[in-house]
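Data availability (excerpt). All sequences and predicted token strings are deposited with the supplementary files. A representative entry, DUF1330 domain-containing protein, is shown inline so that the format can be inspected without opening the archive.
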Amino acid sequence: MLTLIENALPRFLDEDDGQPVDMLNLLRFQEDGGKERYADYLAIAAPIIARFGAAIVYVGNGLPPLSAESGQAWDALALVRYPSRQAFADMAMDDDYRDKAAPLRDAALAEAVLQPLQTVSA
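Structure token line:
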């Protein structure tokens, strides 16, 4: 997963406006203990994420979808707010994150989508 993120970072940072960014994580767990490994990941990742001024806003289990095509249901989602795109990039490239947290995340997930979001003023 980190390789995919690394490849996307230049464009992601080129479009940085300095505003906070929320990362929506759509998660599909490995069948054999993925959910438990993801809980281990969160325990290790949370303090690392906090060092970059970010916070886990929400983590929740997915329920059966009301409107979705086959295969579009997710086991869980997490929403993490970063103070900037650069803060996310710095966290993703941090040695502690790469060496301690990312391997747990990768082992926990069968599939994931990391979707950046930006608040729209009403």
